[in-house]
Amino acid sequence: MASDSDVTIPSKIKAWVYAERGNPVDVLKLVPDVGVPEIKEDQVLVKAVAAALNPVDFKRALGFFKHTDSLPPIVPGYDVAGVVVKVGDQAKKFKVGDEVYGDIIEKAVDHPKQHGTLAEYTAVEERLLALKPKNLSFVEAASLPLAIETAYEGLERAGFSPGKSILVLGGAGGVGSLVIQLAKEVFASLKPLRFPWPLKLLMKASRGLAFRLANPSSFWVAPAVSVPS
Ligand SMILES: NC(=O)c1ccc[n+]([C@@H]2O[C@H](COP(=O)([O-])OP(=O)(O)OC[C@H]3O[C@@H](n4cnc5c(N)ncnc54)[C@H](OP(=O)(O)O)[C@@H]3O)[C@@H](O)[C@H]2O)c1
């Protein structure tokens, strides 16, 4: 079993950082000498193998919730998949060498961490991580946490259950594609309908319109972007 002492952690790491808010295209820079985040006793240090960006990162950079945000400089990124390289004194769930993934920011817009996941190393409370399933690559695992939490919470809040219908607009997007899969595989409630071409074309033309099927026992999904053009 690997221990903390087996792992060499550099004192300076590479990270994507913005020193002021604005369009990420203009303000996001790769900085070669960011300090490694210190871990608290309930945290672990993760060496990132893959990280993901979500719309919230873009909105955050633009200053959409600057009144509840950390002050720049900010390393963006909520999602990470990587390897545990250091464990806090009170962290018991993981050991050095474990492959983990998660959304490291518990409350998305309420003082999110200044040091996010677009860095070689990131500090995160162990309760926010899970072991990475062996059948997922790091990239696949990093793509999931925030989007699937959003999808799951949406279905829960909507009281979705067997016997109900669901229309998913933006069904090929990050959240939408997961709503469809959760509805089918976890909530066990979905029987996707294959739309006839005229209806597909109508949907393509009228994005946002909801259709209701004549047969109320059908469960159906309208993946707005899966309609071939
Ligand atoms: N990702 C997250 O973790 C997360 C968390 C909380 C909230 N949200 C919010 O959830 C929304 C979706 O996020 P996402 O990550 O799934 O984004 P995404 O991957 O960019 O997906 C957005 C989807 O919406 C479709 N779309 C865009 N404009 C549309 C319109 N006018 N009518 C119908 N469909 C339209 C897009 O289709 P095209 O590609 O064809 O344009 C795409 O399939 C965003 O508002 C985001 O802020 C996301």
Describe the structure.
By secondary structure, the chain is α+β, with helices and mostly antiparallel strands. The chain is built from six helices and seven strands, in the order βαββαββββαααα. α4 (145-157) crosses α5. The chain has two domains: 4-142, Quinone Oxidoreductase, Chain A, domain 1; 146-226. It is globular and about 55 Å long. The strands form two sheets. The protein has a five-stranded antiparallel sheet. It has a two-stranded antiparallel sheet with strand order 1-2. Residues 194-229 have low confidence and may be disordered. The structure holds NADP nicotinamide-adenine-dinucleotide phosphate. NADP nicotinamide-adenine-dinucleotide phosphate is lined by residues 54-56, 146-147, 150, 169-170, 172-176, 207-208, 224-225. It holds the Pfam family ADH_N. Residues 23-229 form the Enoyl reductase (ER) domain.
Quick structural gist:
Keywords: NAD, Oxidoreductase. It is built from six helices and seven strands; from the N terminus they run βαββαββββαααα.
